[in-house]
Amino acid sequence: MKTRRQFIKISAAGAGAAALGLHTLNVKGLSLFDSNEQEPVSDENMKATPTYCEVCFWKCAGWSYVDKKKNLRKIIGNKEDPHCQGRLCPRGTGGVGMYNDEDRLRTPLIREIDKNGYQYFRKASWEEALNLVASKMEKLRKDYGPESLALFSHGTGGKLMTHLAKAYGTPNITAPSFAQCRGPREVGFTATYGEGVLSPERTDIRDTKCLVLIGSHIGENMHNGQIQEMSQVLDNGATIITVDPRFSTAASHSKYWLPIKPATDLALLLAWINVIIEEKLYDEPYLKKYAFGFDELKAHVKDKTPEWAYGITTIEPEVIRRTAREMAAAAPSVIVHPGRHVTWYGDDTQRSRAIAILNALLGSWGRRGGFYNPEKVHLPNYPYPPYPKPKRSWRDAFPKDKYKLVTEVLSSGICYASIPNPDMDYRMHGWIVYGTNLMASLPEQQKTLEAIHNLDFLVVIDTMPMDITGYADVVLPECTYLERYDPIRTSPHREPYIALRMPAAKPKYDTKPGWWIAKQLAHKLGLDDYFKWDNIEEMLDWQLKKVGSSLEEMKRIGVKKFPREYKDLYNLQGLPDYEFNTNTGKIELYSTELAAEGFEPLPDYTHHPEPPEGYYRLNYGRAPMHTFSRTVNNHNLWDLKKENNVWVNPKVADLWELKNGQEVWLKNQDGIISSFPVKVRVTERIRWDSVYMVHGFGQTDTKLTRAFGHGASDSELVSKIYEDPVMGGTGMRSNFVTFLKENPRKNREEVKA
Ligand SMILES: Nc1nc2c(c(=O)[nH]1)N[C@H]1C(S)=C(S)[C@@H](COP(=O)(O)OP(=O)(O)OC[C@H]3O[C@@H](n4cnc5c(=O)[nH]c(N)nc54)[C@H](O)[C@@H]3O)O[C@H]1N2
Ligand SMILES: Nc1nc2c(c(=O)[nH]1)N[C@H]1C(S)=C(S)[C@@H](COP(=O)(O)OP(=O)(O)OC[C@H]3O[C@@H](n4cnc5c(=O)[nH]c(N)nc54)[C@H](O)[C@@H]3O)O[C@H]1N2
Ligand code: SF4
Ligand SMILES: [Mo]
């Protein structure tokens, strides 16, 4: 029996007098480092260095400005960068707050247990902490094989940790951005077109005439390029159709808002397909040339009329018809947006398939104003020996027929594969967690904890004392993106291009860059051959020279564009011959791949459970000024929004006698109660059958001096999921909550026993 890892509040490690001093100053709003409170300095008196943003995963390129006293003053967008066109979003501008945050992790920490069984963190040197990590990795390799180690890694900084993990011999590398985010979309689109949607999405919003947003709440979801393009087309008179149970920011800019009953979108999509087929509004030549299975689709949706869908979705038949005709009138310059966070109800691959099919009927894939054909720069890898061939992977922890069409490692799968099970002879025994706060991003916290308690060791590499760090055996403090080099950014887009991130300031405290951590560990593990360069600058310069640039050039320009290798940005314009990467070589309206694996080849509507009496569906989303939990303690962004609210429809508020601003605790269907209260926001903008809150708040670590105890955490309440049978995505909008008006706990500190 292992010692259960107690959650340790990092404050227990003792922050030291100097740290406390700074902290006190900051609380009074007098922080020495607060960029907002410094004397203005003109740009000529500052040094600008290139970076790309790490406040979210859109990765806009920009310039960080440092004054003569070496204070980091501001970050602005790089005009050459197609991700941002020179304008960062409020979060990107507020990125300086990540560097200045006085609550940052400062030194490596090692978990200790005293003779009374009390667990605490002790400060350690890098040498000691890395030796410990390397010795644990060695032991794991010897005891269970390298495939018993899993790496969770989100963000570009983790790329060299990924390289290290592969060199060590594990294939179990994952991030919650697949199984909890865009996984079903990629699988659904790949089943249809033989290719995924990718990130940034290949949506040609800039040139569209009609944009259909199903849940995607662009405007609150602040992915920069999309927002800029959407406001541009709004000015040009494009039609926006928003399907959302909540009156989102996007809905407020839309010609049509369809306040759909949650969990019924598949019925609406089938009815739209029905109208487009029955009224012959589809792109016939396009389908004749490229599509497979039109007749089967037609028969399949014959009875999926708008009248049928009305009973399910509450959207009036006439509205369904009118919006379908709007789409067809704009076709092929129409985008039925595939969404991004699509793990909703467990039939998400099928919903994504329906979206992909609708786009195919409208002929928008490969067409101007629809979906463009992206390209990216391929940077060669600095030479290293072949990776060892893993003998098994996380999939071997499950029956063969589980997760048949999965294309990436599932973070939730790794978690389940870490919980001992008598039927399994193989499981994960160690985790390295880089840049992902698993307590907030994985659903079913009880399973995450069970997995963690059964690990031989857990290493967390983070910049902040986020929840996950409290469970680590070793915490390695990374410096922020503003203090380090990282691998070159190269993302698929209209034009291929690259961007450099380099340090604008020296790492604060005793923090180190991810690349350095990976290289040191490689050395200690005898894997030097995989890191043959002395310094990351040497590696980057080598790579850049291979594509006709250099580190010196990139330091000057930050972003470099390259000509497209293929001229076909809209590769299906004019109906050229084209072979899709599917079994039939066609766009598969009818999926032969799904059929072969025993899944429905055509998407169908399934009914999802409804909230029990007195409960409401827990709906969650984004706020423009925050990214998940990663920004809630950032003083610049905290100033803009300090806590979340729970949105409640006035009818529901009346029933419960809830007032605007009143604090309530939320209790879910499994009896889980939010750690903290959350203030009610009474608003017509949410349907009566749901409540809504912004994800990321309700932090439980007191060391996050600003964020601690502010608002409630949706993650705690997502204790039930519906797993997507096709690829294992975790449908998370399947939880229901009710209100507690009295404090169910005696004091606030009681939350983490
Ligand atoms: N500011 C900011 N922007 C971000 C992020 C961030 O943290 N902060 N995160 C980024 C990331 S990684 C992602 S994946 C994206 C996520 O952003 P999206 O892909 O836009 O997110 P979703 O969760 O799909 O959409 C949330 C919306 O779905 C609605 N909704 C809920 N249930 C239903 C339903 O049954 N049917 C329909 N039609 N709508 C429903 C909600 O009311 C809400 O408006 O945002 C990205 N952009
Ligand atoms: N309940 C619920 N769960 C969700 C979602 C939701 O809306 N609700 N959204 C889902 C989606 S769409 C996604 S994409 C995932 C995202 O999930 P995550 O990838 O886990 O995102 P964050 O919560 O932002 O966690 C980022 C972590 O990285 C740390 N960090 C920030 N910068 C750095 C750095 O430079 N280096 C290192 N080493 N660490 C850094 C932060 O301090 C934080 O601990 O969550 C998913 N899970
Ligand atoms: S969208 Fe905003 S937060 Fe995300 S990378 Fe761009 S500037 Fe940074
Ligand atoms: Mo995401």
Helix run count: 24
Examine the secondary-structure arrangement and name the CATH architecture of one domain.
3-Layer(aba) Sandwich
Radius of gyration: 26 Å
Q: Class of one domain, according to the CATH hierarchy?
A: Alpha Beta
Which features would summarize this protein structure in a list?
29% helix; 753 residues; binds ligand MGD; alpha/beta; globular; binds iron/sulfur cluster; binds molybdenum atom; 15% strand; Dimethylsulfoxide Reductase, domain 2; six-stranded mixed beta sheet; Barwin-like endoglucanases; single chain
Notes on the protein architecture:
The two termini are about 20 Å apart. This protein has about 750 residues and is of the alpha/beta class. About 30% of the residues lie in helices and about 15% in strands. The strands form seven sheets. Strands 5-4-15-14-13-6-7 form a seven-stranded mixed sheet. Strands 21-23-22-27-20-24 form a six-stranded mixed sheet. Among the domains are: about 195-375 and about 585-595, Dimethylsulfoxide Reductase, domain 2; about 615-750, Barwin-like endoglucanases (Beta Barrel). It is built from 24 helices and 27 strands. Iron/sulfur cluster binds next to helix 2.
